[in-house]
Amino acid sequence: MFNRFSSRKSGGHKSLFVDLILGAMVLVMLVAAACSSSDSGGAGSLTVYSGRSETLVDPIIQQFKNATGIDVKVKYAGTAALANTIREEGDNSPADLFFAQDPGGLGAIQDLFTPISSDLLNLVPEWARAADGSWVGISGRARTLVYNNETLTEADLPDSIQGLTDPKWKGRLGWAPTNGSFQAMVTAMRSTWGEAATREWLEGVNANDPTEYPKNTPQVAAAASGEIDIGLVNHYYLHRFLAEEGESFSARNYHPREGGPGALIMVAGAGILTTSDDKENAEKFLEFMLSLVGQQYFASQTFEYPLTDGVNTPLGLTPLEDINHPDITPRDMADLEGTQALLRDIGIIP
Fold first, then answer.
1. Are residues 214 and 197 in the same domain?
2. What is the biggest distance separating any 2 CA atoms in the chain, rounded to whole angstroms?
3. Which of 193, 226, 250, 342 counts the most CB atoms within 10 A of its CB?
4. How is 18-41 classified by DSSP, letter by letter?
5. What does the pLDDT look like over 20-34, one tens digit per residue?
6. What CA–CA distance (Å, rounded) separates 58 from 76?
């Protein structure tokens, strides 16, 4: 089931020559686009609702603004919260485009999107876009366990996240149940394990008194400091710490040997609202994010997996084909409301 990723470059490093070529290409593209937008006498505006955090995506959004001259306004919040906001706003929503952290958030309002052009959709593999063409993936992310590598080895870790219900992990775990990626993982659990087994897992881990965090970054820091032994996170947060602090940083990622939802590959993606007054600019935004400039940003700066060909990824990033991930489609992760209802019923989220 891994051959669908085989055409994506998932290892190696950029040579100085490649860096120089890419830098020159980026400069030429930005200058040309900026000149084009200035000649047009005004490039208009775009309102983005972003479930992706400002620290992750603001730099590339600023590049888009500088390259096109389009005035971009961004509303940042959690993916699930923004999906609910868009639905509540209905025809009065000022949003032109929804940039979501996970396919669950996109699926929650999929009926409010207008179809994306096939030229854009065909830039990414089938697994990274909606079957009906309503949204397109921008980058790929892997769920993983981050662990303290001074106190644990991979051999100490469970074959799958089902093992985290073992009482030996009581008081040693961290999670972020309000986080969109965590909820996407639980949605994938419900799709593959069923409701009863998912409830049993959630109740079992909850009984182990995990430390609750608002998001992924503090879990990685907590694992490295020894505050927890294991956290449930997305892969790229560790790589950001390693880039800043070096190999002495006391945490590492582990992709469960038996795979399952704990090794889920997710996409962050975007869709254009049918009520948008700036659909052309919204498509320009998507085109920029899927260009070499945008994809290289996600690979090199946020350590996510690029979805288009010809993009170099950092040394040390586990190739997608080496992760024993479940074969789950975005459609399987669309029932975000059901997941939130389950988490509330158990008392894990308010």
1. yes
2. 66
3. 342
4. HHHHHHHHHHHHHHHHHHHHHHTT
5. 344 445 444 544 444
6. 10
Band (175; pLDDT cuts 50, 70, 90)? very high
Q: Are residues 89 and 130 in the same domain?
A: yes
**What does the alpha-carbon distance between residue 35 and residue 26 come to, in Å, rounded to a whole number?**
14
Distance CA 224, CA 327 (A): 31
| Residues in Cβ contact with 89 at an 8 Å cutoff, skipping those fewer than 6 apart | 95
Taking alpha carbons only, the member of 186, 208, 210 closest to residue 340 is 186
Lowest mean pLDDT among 137-146, 201-210, 215-224, 313-322: 313-322
Q: State which amino acid sits at residue 87.
A: R
Same domain, 287 and 304: yes
Q: Is 98 helix (H, G, I), strand (E, B) or coil?
A: strand
- How many domains does the chain fold into? 2
From residue 103, alpha-carbon distances to 56, 192, 291, 307, 333 in Å are: 18, 16, 21, 15, 6
Q: Is 276 helix (H, G, I), strand (E, B) or coil?
A: coil
Convert the pLDDT of each residue in 106-162 to its tens digit: 988 999 999 999 999 999 999 899 999 999 999 999 999 999 999 999 999 999 999
- Regarding whether 191 and 253 lie in a shared domain, the answer is yes
Domain of 134: which CATH number? 3.40.190.10
**Residue 190 domain boundaries:** 142-264+326-346
Beta bridge partners of 252: 147
Of residues 59 and 2, more confidently modeled = 59
